[in-house]
Amino acid sequence: MATSAPNKRAIFRSKALEKYVQSREKSVLPRFVAPPVFALSWLVLVALTAAGLIAWLGQVPLYATGSGLVLDQSATSPQGNDEAVAVILLPAASSMHLRTGLSVQVQIGVSGPLVTSTIDSIEPTILSPNEVRQRYMFEVLDPSFVAIVRLGPHISSHMYAGSIVHAQIQVGSQRLLSLFPPFNTTPS
Questions:
Q1: In this structure, are residues 146 and 123 in contact, taking their beta carbons and an 8 Å threshold?
Q2: pLDDT tens digits, residue range 43-101?
Q3: What's the burial of 174, exposed, middle or buried (CB within 10 Å: 0-12/13-18/19+)?
Q4: Which has the closest alpha carbon to 99: 127, 119, 126?
Q5: For the domain 60-173, what is the CATH superfamily, name and number?
Q6: Phi and psi for 8 in degrees, rounded to 5?
Q7: Where are the alpha helices (DSSP H) in the chain?
Q8: C-alpha span between 118 and 152 (Å, rounded)
Q9: Residue 64: other Cβ atoms inside 10 A
Q10: Which pLDDT tens digit goes with each residue over 112-155?
Q11: How far is 38 from 31, CA to CA, in rounded Å?
């Protein structure tokens, strides 16, 4: 038997070998870095950044609330002037924020009109619950400041005299971020 010289020629074509090697060298990205997930991650990051900026820069109003009554001024007012005046009793804690000219929303009674006005005057002293009861025939439990509010010419003193009113006075604003407990710097 004759032996033949070993064949140096490869069984596979060179192009096929190159393709095989290239397919094996292809970088395979993990599933969590697939293009849609990557885009979604950037979108979430942008949304969280925008929410953080809004919370940092956003302001929310602070209100002082109180109750009171519409005064009967029929005996003291001149003829032709029937404008109603309300006495708003506010807690003593809100006194440092109160000043004349602040905007007030006054709800007359439960289903009466909602009036927007401004504070005309504020009594300089705190009234005890007894003094409030004697002066205005209105029951309060804590010492109170008195704010006087004119309700406008379209609210008749004669019609609403003695009516209970509820008022909200915007006394300032605070950062939206301060509403979250870790960022709240005001003592509780």
A1: yes
A2: 999 999 998 888 888 888 888 888 899 887 665 555 556 788 889 988 887 767 788 88
A3: middle
A4: 119
A5: Efflux pump adaptor protein, beta barrel domain (2.40.30.170)
A6: -85, 0
A7: 14-25, 35-57, 129-136, 157-160
A8: 10
A9: 22
A10: 888 888 888 888 888 888 888 888 888 888 888 888 998 888 88
A11: 10
Rounded CA gap, 147 and 119, in Å? 7
pTM given for the model: 0.63
Nearest to 150 by CA among 98, 74, 85, 87: 85
Nearest to 112 by CA among 77, 154, 169: 154
92 close to 145: Cβ distance less than 8 angstroms: yes
Domain boundaries, the chain: 14-57, 60-173
CA distance 163 to 70: 5
The two structure tokens encoding residue 29: 């990205």
User: Residue 89 is encoded by which pair of tokens?
Assistant: 């009793």
d(CA 69, CA 71): 6
> Is there a contact between 176 and 60 (Cβ–Cβ < 8 Å)?
yes
Distance separating alpha carbons of residues 57 and 41, to the nearest angstrom: 24
Calculate the alpha carbon distances from 79 to 43, 74, 85, 158 in Å.
68, 9, 16, 12
